[in-house]
């Protein structure tokens, strides 16, 4: 069942989203060679606590951390850990913020120091693919329009789109209907309606789209060891067009 949100509910989610955007902005300078993803986890927990917010991922379906930290060939759901990040790594930090009961979800791939041109181009195309998806998140369009915009652009740029993980509705809990694949056919799927709040979170790989699961039963990584990047926003569908609730640039 798709739950649509009131203007007030969307405003509250936007407050959570602005706080989350602030975390990613801070992480731009916090993340550098020598920092560990466990230090990032602790930094985020403190940042949220100081502002009266909590991390919604901790305890969700047994997940034990506030952040997911996915390094290089890890696609998503990497665990924060004690090994130091190295120059040239890319790391995706994903989190869900709960502020006064309202949720927002955003993932961002960060560069660790100087990175290769290959990694930078993957990140740039992945971020652009997210915005191409968001452009389609408007009343009257269909879910397939979002995935189609992402997939056609990503593949034309030579990358593959991960199929095993999708965007999703978000509201009282992290994952609600509808599911938003980052691939598909234009004009197909459920119609997008005013008041829907969804995440769009494309994961693009340099090599094959296929993933395999680590023994921890959480972390997915590319089958061929190539790099993977991800950008995610929480987006409200309104009669005035999509509102990005986790935008960092405003
Ligand atoms: N933030 C994730 C998403 O984009 C959810 C992570 S699953 C969790 O869908 F268990 F880590 F919370
Ligand atoms: Co997320």
From TrEMBL:
Pfam families: Peptidase_M24. Binds 2 divalent metal cations per subunit. Has a high-affinity and a low affinity metal-binding site. The true nature of the physiological cofactor is under debate. The enzyme is active with cobalt, zinc, manganese or divalent iron ions. Most likely, methionine aminopeptidases function as mononuclear Fe(2+)-metalloproteases under physiological conditions, and the catalytically relevant metal-binding site has been assigned to the histidine-containing high-affinity site. It is an enzyme of class 3 (hydrolase). It comes from the Bacteria. This is Methionine aminopeptidase. Its cofactor is Co(2+); Zn(2+); Mn(2+); Fe(2+). Monomer. GO terms for biological process: proteolysis. Belongs to the peptidase M24A family. Methionine aminopeptidase type 1 subfamily. A divalent metal cation 2 binds at residues 105, 168, 201, 232. Removes the N-terminal methionine from nascent proteins. The N-terminal methionine is often cleaved when the second residue in the primary sequence is small and uncharged (Met-Ala-, Cys, Gly, Pro, Ser, Thr, or Val). Requires deformylation of the N(alpha)-formylated initiator methionine before it can be hydrolyzed. GO terms for molecular function: initiator methionyl aminopeptidase activity; metal ion binding; metalloaminopeptidase activity. PROSITE patterns: MAP_1 (PS00680). One of its GO terms (cellular component) is cytosol. Its EC number is 3.4.11.18.
């Amino acid at each position: 069942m798709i739950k649509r949100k009131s203007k007030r509910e969307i405003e509250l989610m936007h407050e959570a989203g602005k706080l989350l955007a602030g975390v990613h902005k801070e992480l731009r300078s916090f993340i550098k060679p020598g920092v560990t993803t466990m230090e990032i986890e602790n930094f985020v927990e403190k940042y949220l606590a100081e502002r009266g917010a909590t991390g919604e991922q901790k305890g969700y379906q047994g997940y034990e951390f506030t952040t997911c930290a996915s390094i290089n060939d890890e696609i998503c759901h990497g665990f924060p850990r004690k090994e130091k990040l190295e120059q040239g790594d890319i790391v995706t930090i994903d989190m869900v913020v709960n502020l006064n009961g309202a949720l927002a979800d955003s993932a961002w791939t960060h560069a660790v120091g100087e990175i290769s041109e290959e990694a930078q181009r993957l990140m740039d195309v992945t971020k652009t693919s997210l915005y191409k998806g968001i452009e389609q998140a408007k009343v009257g369009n269909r879910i397939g329009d979002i995935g189609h915009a992402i997939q056609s652009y990503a593949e034309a740029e030579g990358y593959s789109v991960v199929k095993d993980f999708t965007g999703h509705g978000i509201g009282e809990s992290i994952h609600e209907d509808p599911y938003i694949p980052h691939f598909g056919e234009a004009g197909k799927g459920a119609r997008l309606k005013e008041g829907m709040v969804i995440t769009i979170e494309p994961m693009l790989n340099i090599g094959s789209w296929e993933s395999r699961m680590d023994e921890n039963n959480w972390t997915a990584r590319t089958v061929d060891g190539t790099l993977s990047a991800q950008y995610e926003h929480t987006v409200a569908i309104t009669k005035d067009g999509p509102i990005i609730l986790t935008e960092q640039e405003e």
